[in-house]
Amino acid sequence: MPDIPLRSFRNKQAGYQPLDVDSPNIKSPSPSNDNNSNFNRNNREPQMNRNVSRVAAAATADRSRSNRTRRPAAKQRYVDDPEEAVGLLDSSREGEEVEEREGGGIDGNGSSMMLPDSSKPSKKLLSTRLKSQKSAKSKGTLHTSRTIPFRPPSSLQHKFPPNIVRNQKYSLITFFPMVLYEQFKFFFNLYFLLVALSQFVPALKIGFIATYIAPLAFVLSITIGKEAYDDYKRNLRDREANGQKYLVVDPPSPQSSTSTSSLPFNTTSQIPTHLSTRAVPSSSLLVGHLVRLQKNDRVPADMVLLWTSDPSGTCFVRTDQLDGETDWKMRISVGETQSLGENGVAALGASHGGSGEAEIYADAPTKDIHTFIGTFTLNRSITTLPDDAETHVIGDDEDEDGTGSATPTQRSPLLSHHPSHNPLTDVPMKRTNRSSIQAGAGGGAIVSPLTAENVLWANTVLASSGTVIGFVVYTGTETRAVMNTSKAGTKVGLLEVEVNGLAKILCTTTFILSVVLVALNGFRGGVFTTHTLVSVLRFLILFSSIIPISLRVNLDLGKSLYSHQIMTDSTIPNTIVRTSTLPEELGRVEYLLSDKTGTLTRNEMEMRKLHMGTMSYGQDSMDEVGRQLALAFALSNTGPGDDHNQHYRGSSVTLTHSNSHSMGGGLHQAGAGGRGRRDMSSRVKDVVQSLALCHNVTPVTNDDGSVTYQASSPDEVAIVSWTQSIGLTLVYRDRTKMVLRAGAFSSSQSQTTSENLLTFDILSLFPFTSESKRMGIIVRDCATGEISFLLKGADVVMARIVQRNDWLEEETGNMAREGLRTLVVAKKKLSATAYAEFEKAYHIASTSTGTGVISRAEAQAKVVEELLERDMELLGLTGVEDRLQDEVRSTLELMRNAGVKVWMLTGDKVETARCIAISTKMVGRGQYIHEVAKVKTSDDMKSHLDFLQNKLDCCLVIDGESLQLCLNLFKNEFIEIATKLSAVVACRCSPTQKADIARLIRAHTGKRVCCIGDGGNDVSMIQAADVGVGIVGKEGRQASLAADFSLTQFSFLSTLLLWHGRLSYRRSATLAQFVIHRGLIISIIQAVFSAIFYFAPIALYQGWLMVGYATVYTMMPVFSLVLDRDVSRETALVYPELYKELVKGRVLGYKSFFEWVMISVYQGAAIMIMSLVLFENEFLHIVSISFTALVLNELIMVALEITTWHTYMIISEVVTLFFYVISIAFLPEYFDLSFVVTVGFAWKVAVIVGISAMPLWIVKVIKSRIAPAASSKLL
């Protein structure tokens, strides 16, 4: 948990004055003190921290005075000053480094300095910032920085967005306009609407109005009802979230405030012990509210953590719905407010009329969940604590009096929660009493920096026991959770887009045909006359069946059937279809974007291997490690000559044959004699103890008394759990101390019941960073006083740090090929002199302002590298397995064989993602992995892209920072190259970046993109995809609820895509073409009839014939095509290449469409012409003759299209024919029953049907022999 120092204050700005050593608020240190305090080993006080506080205090005090002078009204004091916002904190790290290099802030001796003019922002930069601030102000205070006092006035609170969760898409006013717009923005539906409305014009009326209105009304009512129901459910969820009650802490009563306002902070006897709270719904929370949370409470808004019931000032939160990681994250309360206690925090702002007693500055809200820039300012004096309130913090090895006593002292709550060391930003801390952070002798403002570790983001959950109090800084749309959530849009399947395009072609064709027929009639009355216009429109309406409204009905019913089949599939149980309009999209996916944690992996780490050079311990030989460890602690406790020691020597180290294969050549070494056994046990003790100490794990006691381990990295938890299983348990850990318990291991062969508590002081901690790829810790054994530097990290950086060896590279490669995450462990013993030398050098580097060549962070890292990371003893190599979801490897292999390119987008570290890419076989054996990380310049990025352009067979691993640079500078080049690569892994991705990648691939390639994830951080990506799939897992149901399809396992994806997706697309494509053919053929018959009979716009088939043709006579057989399948489920999954063939979109391409148009033209013309030829003497019966031939022709065409017969298909054919025969008797106005029952009618109709259908059957048979379909080859 790194400290982030205050940003350098700029001089000559409004409200800030250059510091003067004669200022009453700052005591100038004497030269002697200045020389001794920084470099004398006997008195190494944290001058930097002290001077930072003094600088901030003086600046804040001056600002407060000037603000009071300029703005008499108390409430106006807190209005954001643009120059103040510019000068207080700079959100850019680069800006901070530039200021430091130009000499701002703190000098090398830790004393305060005035900033030179070069440290001021340029006029151009300042004017730009002021303009942006004014622009933001003109739009309200949304998305601006803010300075919020405790107990702020209501007028200030209501300037910020309300804390309302709103996922509804519509309101009562916008519902119908938006739904109707979504429906009629497609030409397909708009055409039907215009045709239906035309029937209300008498001159254009043809047939029954109901035949045009009813289908459209049916489709719209179904769509509107579904949208209304979905939005109603969203409204219920919003109301539940907004109505959840939270406790807001009110200030104590005026009597209590008055009596306690002048008390010192450490005096609590007269402070009321009962908090004044009130329950407030989440939607009523405002910026500046103090909110009290308990375990398992959802954090309702972004808030600064002020106080926790844990004495250490820490708490844990679950962030799985924000960043997708299931590991608990530690959050640290503000040190000054933690020391006040719960009632003291509640009293802040209640005294002095609430006039500026304390305030919090927060930078403008951003999407970055890993960064927060702010300050906490306390504008009242602090009484020095008693001597017994001293605290022993990081880096303490001597008392203030220089005696060098290492006796642990009582820790003050104020300093014990200060964020732990970061090698890039921290200064080694000393034993310090409360007086060291006073802002001057006379009291004043204390300014503390706030980082992301002091903030609870909205939508996270408080995981640890106890209570916390937070200060709301961002609400509603300004919270990180909302800013990282993209608005859900209405998804439209590609099939509908394609059908919409075909409808435009058919409508154009219809219009041209209508004009041609009117023109052939001679344009009676003129070209541009009402008669001509009416004639063209009547022909358009007559031919409107070319684009039948029943197409939409059939497709929607088909989608519902596909959804039902997916949800009732026993091979993928508990699968839910939440968007029933997209099943066909599952058969068109070409890019699969997957989350890692919880999707590809279970996020369950397990220690699998420990390699020590001469010995290798596998999963089946970990008991031997426990026995060796027990022997080592027994030897260290009893001494070499003790009888107990002899007992352990004689009873332990003999390997059985079952595990000797994993021990390597060390078997003979261990069994060579007592000396060898002792050496091996000592080595095991060193590596296990180092693993038990070198981490950032904290044991947490649950409500039931059980203890769980929490850390930011799950592999650290796995390693510490493993050390526990073999006999070395982490029982306690705080910021300054760690306690281990040895002797808890037991097995069937040996047992030790003695327990030893091993206590270690934490002197320095160097957390893992993506740049360093390692973490280190300096500990001191309280029993022996021995100081050790322990280090673990990636082999690529550790290889040059450890002593020369001949096995590390080979064994690391072996473990990596097994998909294990490797860590190299090393140790170095430090003498008191060596540690003091390091501490001195590190302190100087920490307080340096940096130069133009090297920054402070680089100076600190250089000190660690030169004084500690040299010739370290290599202890061992660990291999941790991140367990994959079931059948992940085979599923990804199927996806690749099906032509689907797989990308992995994760918020995890580069090294972790790389290991998972290897273990899931995303990366082939021996395939080159090109890593792009921490790229900051366009030239470097261009060189990477040039390299990738020439090596498209590699796997790209890129981090979020470099990815953002790519998207900003080389968007088109990057996506063009990346989409050609075999695999892409993007690490440290924010939720917004994941969504941006999905949109970018869609826009650039025009291909279908499927995104799959299981956490709240995946919601934006899922919603941005053409098809979103959510997995119900450990990270909750948020992704599942937001997705189009919900699965319970990643492996179900293969069945969902390769079987259901393929079938759905193929069936719907066939159904759409056949429905178009059904409408086109009757329009061709109408056109031939009109052309023969003087181009008159008179309907051949009217009334119930048209209604029956669109429903009873053809609908059941045509719809039965949705049950057809060309291959079995087993064949589709064994041969994923079939999916690749279908993805090309040829089933509903222009080629197949025009083939169906030609078939319709031929059959329509054949039926009409042959009817006139064969029944020229019975012309009055032309309607019954041609219509009967048409119905029989459609039934035969359905039968020719079926590949695999289904019972429903046979029933539909027979029942439809039966209904048609029966209906003839009830429609005497269209059928002459005496004529229909004659033999002549029957054989002539048979001849017409044979001429229209037989050639197509012959062509189909020949085609199946000459050029069979890929699926038919597998039958």
UniProtKB/TrEMBL annotation:
All copies of domain P-type ATPase N-terminal, residue ranges: 157-206
Location, primary (coarse class): membrane
Keyword Magnesium: yes
Sequence ranges of Low complexity compositional bias: 23-41, 111-130
Signal peptide, first to last residue: none
An individual GO BP term: phospholipid translocation
Residue ranges occupied by any P-type ATPase C-terminal domain in the UniProt entry: 1041-1268
GO MF annotation list: ATP binding; ATP hydrolysis activity; ATPase-coupled intramembrane lipid transporter activity; magnesium ion binding
Location in the cell: Endosome membrane; Membrane
Keywords, comma-separated and alphabetical: ATP-binding, Lipid transport, Magnesium, Membrane, Metal-binding, Nucleotide-binding, Translocase, Transmembrane, Transmembrane helix, Transport
Xref: Pfam families: Cation_ATPase, PhoLip_ATPase_C, PhoLip_ATPase_N
Group of enzyme by EC: translocase
Biased composition range(s): Gly residues: 663-674
Catalytic-site annotation from UniProt: D595 (4-aspartylphosphate intermediate)
Start and end residues of each stretch annotated as Disordered: 1-155, 392-429, 657-678
Sites where the protein binds Mg(2+): D595, T597, D1014, D1018
Transmembrane parts of this sequence: 209-229, 455-474, 501-520, 532-551, 1041-1059, 1080-1100, 1106-1123, 1153-1173, 1179-1200, 1207-1227, 1233-1259
EC number: 7.6.2.1
Reactions it catalyzes: a 1,2-diacyl-sn-glycero-3-phosphoethanolamine(out) + ATP + H2O = a 1,2-diacyl-sn-glycero-3-phosphoethanolamine(in) + ADP + phosphate + H(+); ATP + H2O + phospholipidSide 1 = ADP + phosphate + phospholipidSide 2
Binding site for ATP: D595, K596, T597, E716, F768, K792, R821, T906, G907, D908, R988, K994, N1017, D1018
GO cellular component term, pick one: trans-Golgi network
Cofactor(s) needed for function: Mg(2+)
Record-linked Gene3D superfamilies: Calcium-transporting ATPase, cytoplasmic domain N (3.40.1110.10), Calcium-transporting ATPase, cytoplasmic transduction domain A (2.70.150.10), Calcium-transporting ATPase, transmembrane domain (1.20.1110.10), HAD superfamily/HAD-like (3.40.50.1000)
Membrane disposition: Multi-pass membrane protein
Family per similarity comment: Belongs to the cation transport ATPase (P-type) (TC 3.A.3) family. Type IV subfamily.
Annotated protein name in UniProt: Phospholipid-transporting ATPase
Source species: Lentinula raphanica
